[in-house]
Fold these 2 entries.
Entry 1:
Amino acid sequence: MIYHFSMSEIINRNITIAEVAQNTTSTGKQNIKIKDDKGLTYTLWPTKTNGEESKAYTYLKSLGYDAAGTVVSIGLKEEQGEYNGRAVTYRTIIGMRDADSRPQAPQRTQDTGLEQRVTKIETQVAFLMGKQANTEPQAPPPADPHQEISVDQIPF
């Protein structure tokens, strides 16, 4: 399975690691399960789809598997699904680094900022339409005497 995430789908948050465990999927693939202090579970894949080690996994290895109590900043993707007949949220870590002191951004949804972007575009269109309606024909700017021209452009 290949994931392609747009930036608006990535959620950034600080978590306190409570537990780290290696896991094997039903298809035999290895991943890491991380549980935070709130009881939420996250999946971290050790390798990218191209087989290279993921940066998040490299960072986690630098902490060691006894990382309980460590506060980290993660980027993750949440997906809603179903497991054994009940609704679940799959949380996949796609980035991990030292926690920072910046305030946490609110969780983003797919339509975050859409209204502001539409308003901005409407304002730009109105400006351009108004400018085009009020524009008088103007003489072309004076020619640059150092500008290179081709022979085809010389009037005879």
Entry 2:
Amino acid sequence: MPPRQATPIPAALAVEIEPFGDDELDEAIDAIWAGQEVPAKIGNFELTDDARAEWAMRKVADWQLRVNEINMQAEEWKLRIEQHRIEQTRRLEARIAVFEIPLAQYGINHRLRTKEATTTLPSGKIKTTQSKTATVFIDSDREAQFVKWAQAHLPEEQLDVVVKFTPKTYVSELRKLKLRVVDAPDGEHVVEWSPDGEKDWTKVEGVYVEIPGKIKPTVTPDLHR
């Protein structure tokens, strides 16, 4: 038999005295949401040893499990509601479809007979439209074929209007350019480009820099203990 996993120590037992309770934390969160001052023991809270860190991690794990449970319950309810909606509307929508076909044809016949575009009945209207000229559309399934045809036959000024090419950026190719990273007066890092890597440096807009050595923490509670 596989060894049984030990039951995790409750968060409250990881430290001799909890820095603050859940009620105090909720009051501080309410204060944050209301734009009010937060008590110092929560606003300036720090973890100074493994015991306190384990207390905080156990709290996060417990709350995340609860969040997961609520989300799973919500998904189950959504599926049940959707199933109920389908069961209740399926037959009604089928009935509607059966009647819509002859109603549409009645509206067409009425237009042909009276030249009136709209058939008005006590319980609703049947509106009909008729295009005056043939309308051309591009087949989305064969759009690539049309683009090839346009490139081969249309003059450049017409091609630029009919076919719009969506720009796509390639960061791997960008990094091959003559770039440098400089510090701006506001403390931010700015990327600059030069045609030859020596002069005429120009700021590159729309990019950002990740400086090597920067520590990026990720908190991952163990939800399977």
